[in-house]
Write a structure and sequence with these properties.
globular; single chain; 7 helices; mainly alpha; about 170 residues
C-alpha cells in the first residue's frame, strides 16, 4: 500500500489532505509518539544544517540569472504535509493558479521566503551544480559534515514516515 498522492494544482485536495492529516494526528496522539520524537530529531538536524544552507546556497542562488526553483517543485506532497504536521509547522498556502513551470511562488530576490524545514523535501535536498561545485571546492571538510547531516535528516524523515504509515495503514479496514 502507498500513501495518497497529491495532484499539483488541486487546491481543494491540498486543503482537504491537510485536514485529514491533522485529524489523524489528533485521533492518534498516543500511537504517534515515535513520529513526534523523529520530528524533534529532524528539527535539530535542520538547525545543524542552517549554516550550510545560508552560507553556501544563499550567495549563489540570490545572484542566479535563471533559478532552478520552479513552482511544481515547491508543491508539498503528502509526506511533506505529514512531516510539517509532526514538526508543528503550518503548511504553506499554495496558490494553485500559478503554472507548474513558473518560477516558484516562494522565490524572492533574496532567496526562498519559507524556512528550510517548511519547504517541500525536494527543495531541501536539491542543489544545482554551481552550488555543489563551490561547496566541494571551497570546503571539503565541511562538505563531509554536510553530507553526514543530510543523510541523518533523510534517516529521521524515513523513520518518521515509516512510523506514520504503520499507524495510517493499521486504521484501514481490510
Amino acid at each position: 500500500m502507498e500513501l495518497p498522492e497529491l495532484v499539483f494544482g488541486n487546491e481543494k485536495g491540498y486543503i482537504q489532505t491537510q485536514r485529514e492529516i491533522a485529524d489523524f494526528f489528533h485521533h492518534h496522539q498516543g500511537q504517534l509518539s515515535g513520529v513526534k520524537t523523529a520530528a524533534a530529531g529532524m528539527r535539530l538536524t535542520y538547525r545543524n544544517l542552517r549554516h550550510f544552507f545560508d552560507d553556501f546556497t544563499g550567495p549563489i542562488c540570490s545572484k542566479c540569472p535563471e533559478p532552478c526553483c520552479v513552482n511544481r517543485h515547491g508543491f508539498p506532497d503528502f509526506e511533506d504535509l505529514v512531516v510539517f504536521h509532526a514538526m508543528g509547522i503550518k503548511a504553506p498556502s499554495f496558490d494553485c493558479n500559478v503554472a507548474d513551470t513558473a518560477p516558484c511562488q516562494f522565490l524572492s530576490p533574496s532567496g526562498c521566503l519559507l524556512p528550510r524545514q517548511g519547504r517541500s523535501y525536494r527543495c531541501t535536498w536539491y542543489f544545482c551544480n554551481s552550488c555543489m561545485d563551490k561547496f566541494q571546492q571551497d570546503e571539503k571538510w565541511e562538505f563531509k559534515k554536510f553530507q553526514a547531516l543530510m543523510a541523518q535528516l533523510a534517516r529521521r524523515r524515513n523513520s518518521l514516515l515509516e512510523q506514520f504509515e504503520h499507524q495510517w495503514f493499521a486504521d484501514i479496514p481490510g
